[in-house]
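Hi Y.,

Following your request, here is the sequence exactly as I used it, all 471 residues.
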Amino acid sequence: MLQKWITSIGLDIGTSTTKLIVSKLLIANQQNQFTLPGCQIIDRRVTYASSIYTTPMLNDVEIDVQRLTVLLEQEYKNAGISLDQVEAGAVIITGETARKQNAESIVHYLAEHAGDFVVATAGADLEGILAAKGSGAIERSAETNAVIANIDVGGGTANIALCQNGKVIETFTLHVGGRLIRLNSDGFVTYVSSYLTEFLKKNSLTLREGEKATFKKLSSICQLLAEETVNYVNALNQNSSLLVSLHTRSSIPEMIMVSGGVGAMMEKQKPKTVKEVAIHGDVGPLLAYHFQSIHVSQAAETTRATVIGAGMQNTEVSGSTVYIGSKRLPLKNIPIVEIPVQQEEKWNPQLFQERARAACMQASTIFSAEDPPAAIALSHFPYCSYKMLQELAKVISAEFIACFKGAKCLVVLCEQDIAKALGQALAKQRKELEIICLDQIDFTHGDYIDLGLPVAGEAISVSVKTLAFSS
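Below is the corresponding structure, written out as tokens. Let me know if you'd prefer a different format.
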């Protein structure tokens, strides 16, 4: 078994902070004369963690790409690495920053100039999923079979993910964060987010820019914000004026953990004066105390939960019986959405359609409108009859088109050797769609995939990129 250590970096550009981590990933090329080559991460070590910087901004809507680039170059020097040593990585742009004017161009610029990266502009749902993975919530849910909620509280939002059996089953976001209220050391309020207006009014409270806030008032507001968040997570409230988008609560967690910058401050002592509250120019320390007082758990990984380690390249070769009905190859950075084919004793097309619809709808809210927007990955694939194959093709194509209006290319991944037959069935169902159907692909929900050019007959090179988190 051939082994190789590679250098991987992760860069997280958030609402209030930016941080970088360097990891060493041990890659094992596990192959023999009877199998196609494949690689896996068998060890990972964080070798360098940067300081946590204030995200540099040109103004309220533009991130300063030049200062970010200088920051990154300096951190490479501090870590003792050069550009040509970076073989994998992830740039994740999160929180309010992901909605800034030039976020998309920045994340691509940094990816292109800093290594071979997974590129993700993380909306609220994806950020919640990444944080749940990095904080340990997903792993904990797999170990305990319990529903675990992770609340990632940063500067502008609280991104919540509910996890069960090692997967995220529900995501939602609240306008709760340390920098929604900012103040100087004398207690004068310099900023109040408009997202808090209705919430404060509902609770008979006011807070205005220029006002000198008392410790009592700030404490009351932070207590109410923490309680509102936890009550909504526990489904004690079915609605909240702090919700980023409409959402209906379903699962009830058995455990709640908190990550993010606010989560990191939960272990610190309660601030007792306005000056102690405003040590970072906002109410983060006081909000952290009130989360702690509700007796939720601090996550094992907090500040760096969103991206620990970075993109790992898992290079494989597809099966030799694939279906390529597109001239778009090569394609990069396609997010993988897993849909179990059969979880029941017998094939049930209606239940599969429900799973396909839910997965595609969630993916349409998480990922940007690229084409192809996502790769549909079919797992739990039993023996497949001709009738079942036709029903699969009908459901997949219908739900894909319904959720990704305007998409012209459908990528389907299979674990079993069935790609050519399924690809042909999909092509007959929707002649307007370009179909790429691959088999013998080892994937995980939440990975990204690159599709290369043919390397042996019809087989193509495939690079599955996993965000590598500490365990």
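The mean pLDDT is 83.

Thanks again,
Q.
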